[in-house]
């Protein structure tokens, strides 16, 4: 069974889990940065439209 073979190698599974967590974090960071940019652009447009 290949699953037991992979599980018996802790270093390999650790590398997989670390890379998976890193990709997940980068994915979340990417989406949060996109939403942040959108809100900043929306705030800028609102300030431009509203006469101070």
UniProtKB/TrEMBL annotation:
The keyword Transmembrane applies. The chain crosses the membrane at residues 12-31. This is Uncharacterized protein. Keywords: Membrane, Transmembrane, Transmembrane helix.
